[in-house]
Write a structure and sequence with these properties.
Layout lengths: L1 H25 L39 H21 L17 H17 L2 H4 L3 H17 L39
Helix pairs in contact: 2-3, 3-5
Length: 185
């Protein structure tokens, strides 16, 4: 099970790098505009001046300074809402790292949790059952993945923080291409 988790984390890291590479290169191609270049005008009927992103994008798709701004907002929510309201004292069975924002897997999972919280705690968009759905479908599974002894904080103990122990090495990936454009497995 531990090796499967490590393999999954390596795949997430590889996919994150590929997403970043694709989003960076997308704006360089002729005829393709990047999200920063996407502005709408009211020239055509039916255009309401909407921006390309109607909702906040997933944090791993952002580049600085947007990434930094989103991370600061996420830190405020995690430290202001999640930690005091939902996280009991860390233990060997329920780990937590005070430097969680240096663990990419934690950032990704907590950002997704925060996006769901923003939507599901607004009765105008989800009714009064939203918070219950958030707890059942988002909070509980997220904490089950982040806090076990084999999770991303496995090498961190109370007062000690280690990221290097969780950084996966280079593993073969079905997503990686060689220089000649062929896929390798």
């Amino acid at each position: 099970m531990f090796q499967e988790v490590e393999d999954l984390k390596a795949h997430v890291a590889a996919l994150s790098a590929q997403v970043k590479q694709l989003t960076e290169s997308r704006g360089d191609e002729p005829g393709v505009s990047s999200a920063e270049d996407a502005t709408t005008t009211d020239d055509e009927p039916g255009d309401a001046g909407e921006e390309e992103w109607q909702y906040p994008p997933f944090i791993l798709l952002l580049d600085p300074p947007q990434y930094d701004d989103e991370l600061r907002a996420l830190i405020e929510w995690v430290e202001g809402v999640l930690v005091p309201g939902y996280l009991a004292e860390p233990s060997a069975e329920a780990r937590w790292c005070h430097m969680w924002f240096e663990h990419p897997v934690a950032i990704a999972r907590l950002h997704a949790l925060w996006l769901a919280w923003q939507e599901l705690t607004d009765p105008a968009t989800c009714g009064y059952a939203g918070p219950s759905i958030w707890h059942r479908d988002h909070l509980d599974p997220c904490l089950r993945e982040l806090r076990p002894a084999t999770g991303p904080f496995a090498g961190c103990t109370k007062g000690e923080h280690q990221v290097g122990h969780r950084l996966p090495g280079l593993v073969p990936s079905a997503w990686r291409q060689s220089e000649d454009g062929t896929h390798h497995r």
